[in-house]
Design goal:
Blueprint lengths: L2 H6 L9 E6 L14 H19 L3 E5 L12 H14 L6 E4 L4 H11 L3 E4 L5 E3 L2 E3 L3 H10 L6 E5 L5 E3 L5 H12 L3 E4 L10 H10 L6 E3 L8 H4 L6 E3 L15 H15 L1
Parallel strand pairs: 1-2, 1-11, 2-3, 3-4, 4-7, 7-9, 9-10
Antiparallel strand pairs: 5-6, 5-8
């Protein structure tokens, strides 16, 4: 059984997993860090969001340092330590959870290994021009680190159309996805829009699904909305959703329990 299926087969038998983002407030040392609230304030905010997401019926939670803007390609030790603390104090009982660190895949892996996460979401392959500068992830180093840390059951969700970036090459997303599965051993392929909360073109996710081995899940990674999820679930095997669950649909607001529940109801109907 694939790593993805082993995580979700008992949680969503025959269905399409719904993974909700738990956006962590800015961590210490970053420009938007709230020193008055401190890490206890960040933990309290994330706990509230996680409780609302679980009450809405999501299948998994993905912790992410979403507000550490501007993002870095190499995390500091203090960021890894703070992220591990927040995840440890907020992780759900009996529900799978993952870690995403923008944009340092090895930091995400280290935090995941320390906290018992089931998966990470990262950009692990390719070469990109981005808001963070030139960017060349290293899937070989990442997967060797997974082996070294003895967390080989940890699934690596690979984003092949990262937000805030464009490819330095000319291959189509479908071509990149196909080779990422074969050469970089992706457990899951993720398709994103241009930035957080933005929908990718439907034709892109359709072409990626057609190109990739049917055994490898393809997930919608950004832009999922209650109003449009049925269109994407014609091709996607599940989704990761964050912005549309927030108050007023704004990425950095708290989770809106009514929006979260409305999304779950729509997505369950679309995947039935």
């Amino acid at each position: 059984m694939s790593r993805f299926r082993s995580i979700f087969h008992s949680v969503v038998p025959g269905g399409k997993p719904l993974i909700a983002m738990a956006h962590v407030p800015a961590l210490p040392g970053t420009p938007l860090y709230d020193a008055e609230a401190g890490l206890p304030g960040a933990v309290a905010a994330v706990r509230r969001d996680v409780d609302a997401l679980l009450d809405a019926g999501f299948d998994a939670v993905l912790f992410c340092n979403e507000n550490d803007r501007p993002y870095q390609l190499q995390a500091g030790l203090e960021s890894a330590a703070a992220m591990a603390r927040v995840v440890t104090e907020c992780k759900p009982d009996g529900v799978p959870f993952g870690v995403d660190f923008l944009w340092d895949a090895r930091c995400a892996l280290a935090v995941a290994a320390a906290t018992g996460a089931s998966f990470i979401r990262e950009v692990a392959t390719g070469a990109w021009e981005s808001d963070m500068g030139l960017w060349s992830p290293d899937a070989a180093a990442l997967l060797r680190e997974r082996r070294r840390l003895d967390v080989n059951d940890l699934a690596v969700f690979m984003n092949i159309t990262p937000e805030f970036a464009s490819s330095a090459g000319r291959r189509s997303p479908a071509e990149v996805a196909k080779s990422t599965v074969v050469s970089s051993l992706a457990d899951v392929i993720l398709v994103s829009g241009a930035m957080a909360g933005a929908e990718p073109d439907l034709s892109v996710i359709a072409s990626v699904r057609e190109a990739v081995d049917p055994k490898v899940p393809v997930l919608l990674n950004t832009g999922a909305r209650a109003e449009t999820i049925d269109r994407y679930f014609k091709y996607a095997d599940g989704c990761i959703v964050g912005s549309s669950l927030k108050v007023d649909g704004y990425t950095w607001n708290p989770v809106d329990p009514e929006r979260a529940k409305r999304f779950v109801d729509a997505a369950r109907s679309a995947s039935a």
